[in-house]
Protein: Isopenicillin N synthase-like Fe(2+) 2OG dioxygenase domain-containing protein
Organism: Hebeloma cylindrosporum
Amino acid sequence: MATQALSMDLPVIDLDLFLAGPPNSDAVLSECKKAAEALILYGALILRDSRVSEQDNTRFLDLMEDYFAQPQTELKKDERPELSYQVGVTLENTEKPKCAVDEPCLKIIEGLDPSERPLDISAHSPDPKCRFFWKMSEVPPYETKFPGLNAPNVVPQSENLKERWPVTMEQWGKSMKSAVADLADMVAIGLGIPGETFRSAGQYGPHLLAPTASDLVKYGKKDTILAGFHSDLNFLTIHGRSRYPGLHIWARNTGKRIPVKIPPGNNLLVQAGKQLEHITGGLIKAGFHEVVVNDQTLQVIDKRKVAFPDRPLIRISSTFFWHLSSDYDLIPIPALIDQARALRDAHVRAGKSDGDEVLYQPMKVGHQVAKRVETHCADGIIVAPCGAKDALCIW
């Protein structure tokens, strides 16, 4: 795996094959291994799931466009700053990319060829995107050491939205949640550990449907950064297909910026996050990515102006963050640590850098989150009180 040339297209993983079984068949085990290797090599993959409806995605994108097209005075009614934005809307120019002030991240950028680097985030400007948080978590049957605020989800009160909102959010959120949990089983099997390992660890995770919105009338100029270079804090991030291109990822060790293309139909994008990196001892690395306005974005803007002149020009990303449970003991799995070391050694022999060696200390997931945010709490998406033991920022 260390020396092969990587395609610029992300591997496509067939979840239907896995669900159809039988679970111990050669075909299923091969697809599981393919899923694990895709995350090791790319930090991302395309997931094909026939249960995911293109119509549901369209309905969701329409709802989000209608919502974020409202005047800011209406959007502000759904802000909950007193809850540190753990539910409801976060308006534009609030979130900042942590990489702009994170030395290891800056070293990764410096190590890239100038032509392959992300757009410059050194000014540490806030991202011009909005976000909405809709909780998709299950209340644990035990007393958690990391109690959230338990605030209810926010439902917009516009007559045009409030009837559609809960049904649409739950339907699309459940589709992505089911898909990513099933993929977690595949990845575990592909890594050679029990299939339920990750699903069990994330059963009571603080999962979030977290769509983002970028106003392409205001921010539709080429090379505008909509979401600055970063990796995600959670375990796995899954996305529905956006109507507008602009997402770039950097596969491990390639040094290449890869434009992401999610094929039409029953397909989703999945990216590895920091919790998955930690539990695998660095065998899988959290994937770096950015969202920008590029030539392809501009082409789609022009086409949609003609084809849908009455629709808002707003880029929606239907993001879902899947987390491990806050009380879970986040300890690197010994067998995966050995694989991570072997892969790192192979990279060194091939003359490739794998970044600085990281010691993944055992800790509760809640402590991992707090440690990540303790000095940069203002720079992420805060979904619990900043500075509190259960603080959670997502970058």
Observations:
- Residues 375-395 have pLDDT under 50 and may be disordered.
